[in-house]
Amino acid sequence: MAKNKKGIIIDAVVLLDKPKGISSNAILQKVKRLFNAQKAGHTGSLDPIATGILPICLGQATKLSQFLLNANKRYTFYAQLGATSTTGDIEGEITSINKPLDFSKEQIIQVLSEFTGEISQIPPMYSALKKDGQPLYKLARENITIERQPRNITIFEINFIEYKNNILVCDVLCSKGTYIRTLAEDIAKKLGSGAYLKALQRTEFAHYKLKDAYQFSQLEELKDNNNLMSCLSKTEDMIINFPSLEISNDELREIKFGRTITKDIPDYKWLKLFCANQFIGIAQSTDNIVQPKRLFI
Length: 297
Fold this sequence. Notes:
Layout lengths: L1 E3 L2 E3 L2 E7 L5 H12 L4 E3 L7 E9 L14 E9 L1 E3 L8 E3 L8 H9 L3 E5 L8 E2 L2 E2 H6 L9 E14 L2 E8 L5 H11 L4 E11 L2 E2 L6 H9 L19 E4 L1 H8 L4 E2 L5 E8 L2 E9 L2 E7 L2
């Protein structure tokens, strides 16, 4: 780590358990200030009502965040059945539906089974998708509704947890681009009712687990005890599934000059490069030629 007038240069990842009632960007700025980090960014934003794991990338780690954008995610959602919301969650205008809600566990599980695999989903108006450069949620706030094209998403798992007091609780493992609000609404429609999200928690993001994440208050406590850096995860752990390649100091010198090196290895779309066990960047390999793509030294 080094210091300059803009803050400390830190290259690492903070696994944050995002609290409810704050935007992902707002909590990102709080974490950045807490670490006095020069640069910070997050991967996969969460709505203000949502809680759960939010990887915060510091320094060079921000350059690898793109590799997590397509990652699968796991959520626990709490859907209030028997009512709808203009936003699909508790922040919207709520309208009750006067229909019986005495669904059995077996009925619900049967309906859930219809939402596994690749399904089509229409994105909600209250989303960050854009139309002619304008976010849809801004149009929705002006009571403007536009046609949205269905998108294919994948629900790898959807598990029933509980149905009590008209609140359905489920665990979902899904692909990038899945709107859990819309999923809950569509499940309720199949049951002959309506729904909106009362709460949402992200429990997994790629290979990261919520149990390994820190609440912001815990980070503050670590800082008070001069132990804040102990919470950091290594930058290279973001791309844990990339194969690793150890290179020599001579090969490192070549790579620093932007040259390729020759190694008797298979073709890889992406490689993690190490020298003397230190992570130095990522590369690609084709026909035994290793081409550096991004160096972190």
